[in-house]
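Lab notebook, design round three. We kept the backbone fixed and only want residue identities now. Task for the bench partner: fill in a sequence for the structure below.
Input structure tokens:
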């Protein structure tokens, strides 16, 4: 029997990126070794067997939430692309596609997984900035865009000018290859425990203007509406 480590399954409106505002069902995996210091879902890091669910249970909950009306799924985490998740993830994706769901996967930007990326409809690639303390690979980013650019977006969380400049450098690295760049979004960091960071948003918008408007600045709408600590929204 196929089992998965699933933190939660819930229906909500997409709160960030180019699909902001679209209703979908989120399937959040439990377990992540990426270790971003500004992660807003650290409760999903542990590979805790208490979160084990069967594939049938997962699909039943999705179908209950869907009511055959919402046919979009966002697979997120945790890190759904951790090697230990891949076999069960592929079975889940295969079943979702068999039932005609449109599937987006949130990729941490630390590995390419063709057997997964070929199955999904859309990939949101997180380019790690210095404030995350996770080392980002421009070569890996370029390889990803060369292979999957037409069905992807790139996102980067921006805390300060250093984050912006690192992302701008990565953009020019990709452009220098001659490859078409997919939509690239900057997400101003909005951390749990802080009030709405208006000054940070304004800083990111201004930096983007000063550098020639190369990015889309799209904040996390769900945090504006419900607060940075809210879950399942």
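Proposed sequence:
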């Amino acid at each position: 029997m196929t089992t998965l480590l699933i933190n939660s399954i819930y229906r909500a409106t997409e709160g960030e990126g180019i699909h902001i505002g679209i209703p979908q069902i989120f399937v959040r995996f439990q377990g992540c070794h990426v270790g971003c210091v500004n992660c807003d879902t650290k409760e999903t890091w542990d590979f805790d067997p208490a979160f084990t669910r069967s594939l049938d249970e997962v699909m039943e909950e999705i179908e209950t939430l869907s009511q055959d009306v919402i046919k979009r799924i966002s697979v997120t985490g945790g890190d759904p692309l951790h090697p230990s998740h891949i076999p069960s993830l592929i079975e889940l994706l295969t079943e979702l596609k068999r039932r005609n769901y449109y599937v987006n996967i949130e990729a941490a930007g630390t590995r390419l997984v063709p057997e997964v990326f070929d199955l999904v409809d859309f990939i949101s690639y997180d380019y790690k900035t210095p404030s995350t303390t996770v080392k980002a690979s421009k070569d890996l980013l370029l390889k990803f865009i060369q292979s999957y650019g037409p069905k992807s977006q790139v996102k980067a969380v921006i805390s300060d000018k250093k984050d912006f400049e690192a992302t701008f450098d990565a953009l020019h690295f990709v452009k220098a290859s001659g490859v078409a760049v997919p939509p690239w979004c900057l997400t101003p960091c909005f951390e749990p425990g802080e009030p709405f960071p208006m000054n940070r948003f304004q800083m990111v918008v201004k930096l983007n203007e000063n550098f020639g408007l190369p990015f889309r600045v799209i904040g996390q709408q769900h945090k504006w509406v419900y607060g940075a600590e809210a879950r399942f929204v």
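Keep this in mind before ordering anything: Strands lie at 3-13, 23-29, 52-54, 72-76, 102-107, 122-126, 152-158, 184-188, 216-217.
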